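User: quick one
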Amino acid sequence: DTGVSQNPRHKITKRGQNVTFRCDPISEHNRLYWYRQTLGQGPEFLTYFQNEAQLEKSRLLSDRFSAERPKGSFSTLEIQRTEQGDSAMYLCASSPGGSGDFTDTQYFGPGTRLTVL
Amino acid sequence: AQSVTQPDIHITVSEGASLELRCNYSYGATPYLFWYVQSPGQGLQLLLKYFSGDTLVQGIKGFEAEFKRSQSSFNLRKPSVHWSDAAEYFCAVGAHAGNMLTFGGGTRLMVKP
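Assistant: Done. Structure below.
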């Protein structure tokens, strides 16, 4: 068990550019979550996958944001036309829970820190 | 909608002293409650969780938390703090559907030698 991994760990981009982050969950974990954490705040939920199906999206996830988990394994989060307000830590978490299991535990990756200049 | 409040933004304690971090939640049904710790440059590490049963739960690193339904609280405690406990602590409540977590704003713990 190598834990949740995220790449890159840091990303600096210019306003208006597109960026993509990758998350590799713990092997055989069915659920995968994305959160955003701004400086001095707690993480905020963005979206969640049960296997390859995206089941929930926060209102924080504007149409510039898209997430995929094509084969139910790794996931990508893309931000198009980045804005300075997108600067944050993007956290990925996975959990083993199957459908109908509401009590499993999320394990977090180290995050990708995005800076938009 | 669910919410979590951590009233103390910063707390400083002396090494060896006891610690209590406060957490109040708002949730319409039986809450699933969690405490996570985040060290600089690190991801969130789960300290403990409460789903049901005994309201006093034990976690890792000598931490414990007590669920008090009447007070809508889930305070984190440790009898003797170590310098390595300096970090940011987050309380979270999980929703039933999908278990997406709602986090509090965090409490930054500093430990004096």
